[in-house]
Amino acid sequence: MAIGDWLFHLTELLRNTPLVEFSLRVSDWRFALWLQSHFYAIPAFQTLHILAIAVLFASTLMLSLRVLGFNGGDQSLAEAMRRYRPWIWSALLCFVASGIVLLISEPVRNMINAIFWIKMSLLVVAVGFSLAFQRSIRARMATWDASPDGHVSLRIGAVAIVLLWCAVMAGGRWIAYAPV
Amino acid sequence: MISNGIWQTIERSAFSSTIASSEWMFPTIETIHVIAIVTVIGAIAMMDMRLLGLASANRTVRALADDTLPVTWTAFALAVVTGLLLFVSKATSYMVNPYFLWKFAFMAAAGINMAVFHRYVAKGMDDWGAPGHAVPLNAKLAGSLSLALWIAIPFCGRVIGFTLGVYYA
């Protein structure tokens, strides 16, 4: 498979960077050893990671469905924004924090892994896109419910942000299946 | 437990071995399974937190149910279909794995909790959260139990990933 070859090649490139030495050093940290030697530690932090993305993703989905007019018609777009925005950003904080712990738990497996870096790139894009999407909602929400027609770009954005977070989750799952 | 034979027959069927022997099928189905479960947990947690008054306290419980139930059921259906496909490809390994069996016990408990909630507790739900109408205590208990179960379910799911092939019949 061509994509498999490309990923393999990408991982080969990572093997020639200082990341190798760095990730090996991280795996000797006391915290890394603690995580490795306690059977339930990694699944517990993975569960926190999943719960965080669950809050982040479901909040994003609800906000997008509200923009698209499928959901939450009893509240204004401004109210929906007030409801979901803080949850999206605090969940992102927990998502990143638990992710850092998972990175420390298996530094080599993650840092010398093309799919891990693809996931990180997708994460940066998704966060940037979320900021832009929310700014765009805020600019229009005052008049939105009076005239919700048009705004094609915002509707496309609502779909795109959901797909972007799906791509981040796909990246997370495929870290385990990277061709090495 | 039904004898190991039936799970072996399922696992050895042409359909199951296609999934098991493919390089991309299992991870791809798993990816859809993860996205579906994440959606289910997030949507259920919103409803539970409304029952507990921790979020969306300015909206009625009915409004939250209307928002979250279609999302929950759609994603749950997707999780069941993908979960079945993952299961048949390694049926014998899953059926001897205690974390898999716990995961299903917790899911059954979550299902019973939800059924009892909608059948008995949710009578009068249309008023809950409206001015002057508090959410009753048993509804809050159902919400707390649901939250706890939906934390235990992905935890068991994750441990399965570390213990598959460790247990034998």
Topology:
The complex is a heterodimer of chains A (180) and B (169).
Chain A: H1 2-14, H2 19-26, H3 30-37, H4 41-68, H5 77-105, H6 107-111, H7 114-144, H8 152-174
Helix pairs in contact in A: 4-5, 4-8, 5-7, 7-8
Chain B: H1 4-12, H2 14-21, H3 25-51, H4 61-89, H5 91-95, H6 98-121, H7 137-163
Helix pairs in contact in B: 2-4, 3-4, 3-7, 6-7
Task: Please tell me about this protein's structure.
The complex is a heterodimer of chains A (180) and B (169). In chain A, 34% of the residues are buried. The mean pLDDT of chain A is 94. Chain A is built from 8 helices and no strands. Chain A starts with a helix and ends in a 6-residue tail after the last helix. Chain A has 180 residues and is mainly α. In chain A, helix 4 packs antiparallel against helix 8. Chain A has helices at 2-14, 19-26, 30-37, 41-68, 77-105, 107-111, 114-144, 152-174. By secondary structure, chain B is mainly alpha-helical. Chain B has helices at residues 4-12, 14-21, 25-51, 61-89, 91-95, 98-121, 137-163. The radius of gyration of chain B is 19 Å and the shape is elongated. The termini of chain B are close together. Chain A binds chain B through residues 1, 39-40, 42-44, 46-47, 50-51, 53-59, 61-62, 65, 71-72, 74-75, 79, 83, 87, 166, 169-170, 172-174, 176-177, and chain B through 23-24, 27, 30-31, 34-35, 37-39, 41-43, 45-46, 55-56, 58-60, 63, 67-68, 71, 151, 154-155, 158-159, 161-162.
Keywords:
heterodimer; A: 180 residues; mainly alpha; 8 helices; elongated; B: 169 residues; 7 helices; 0% strand
Unreliably modeled segments of chain B: none
Cα(first) to Cα(last) distance of chain B is: 11 Å
Q: Which word captures the global form of chain A?
A: elongated
Q: Secondary-structure element sequence of chain A?
A: HHHHHHHH
Overall shape of chain B: it is elongated
Largest sheet data of chain A? none
How would you sum up the major sheet of chain B?
Answer: none
Strand composition percent of chain B? under 5%
Low-confidence stretches of chain A: none
Query: How many individual helices of chain A?
Result: 8
Helix/strand structural class of chain B: mainly alpha
The span between the termini of chain A is 14 Å
CA-based gyration radius of chain B? 19 Å
- Average of pLDDT of chain A: 94
**Quaternary structure:** heterodimer
